[in-house]
Design a protein that fits this description.
With about 160 residues, this protein is mostly helical. The protein is built from 5 helices and no strands. Helix 1 runs antiparallel to helix 2 and helix 3 runs antiparallel to helix 4. The mean pLDDT is about 90.
Length: about 160
């Protein structure tokens, strides 16, 4: 299904992160991976884009989708996945991911993005009117634009 123009900014961000996942997966498969530099890049992605992306989804997208009975369980799963992914991003920031947890991170993040794209976004496009999607898009654009505060990662003590 073609992505509705109002969801495209989030889909573009998904593409950026999927590119990271592909690059990291290839590096893992090739062997001799530099854990320090990859964890630094993961941290940069979180601080530069992912934290704002998560916030926009949690504050704007998920509340709207959660009002639709057919999407409620998916939204609950995605919220829980955000929490688990934040923990992994925090471990990368602390440089405490081992090779196996780095591979797990790649798989979880890619699976999460596919779920948002294939289940949540497509479901919303089927269930919402063009006007509702337009209002959602305006709210998402505002949330992405207004995100000037840093997004804190969980502290080790809370993991």
């Amino acid at each position: 299904m073609l992505r509705d123009r109002n969801l495209i900014p989030l889909s573009h961000q998904h593409q950026h992160v999927l590119t990271l996942c592909v690059r990291l997966d290839r590096a893992i498969q090739a062997g001799g991976i530099d854990l320090e530099s990859w964890q630094a890049e993961i941290q940069d992605h979180f601080e530069g884009e992912v934290c704002v992306h998560f916030a926009a989804e949690e504050q704007v997208l998920f509340p709207v989708a959660g009002q639709m009975a057919r999407l409620r369980a998916t939204v609950d799963e995605l919220r829980a996945e955000h929490d688990a992914l934040r923990q992994l991003f925090a471990r990368a920031a602390e440089r405490s991911l081992e090779l196996s947890s780095l591979a797990d991170f790649v798989e979880r993040l890619a699976r999460h993005i596919r779920k948002e794209e294939r289940e949540l976004f497509e479901g919303m496009q089927k269930l919402m009117t063009a006007d509702q999607l337009s209002k959602l898009g305006a709210a998402l654009n505002e949330a992405l634009k207004q995100a000037t505060q840093t997004c804190p990662l969980p502290h080790k003590s809370s993991m």
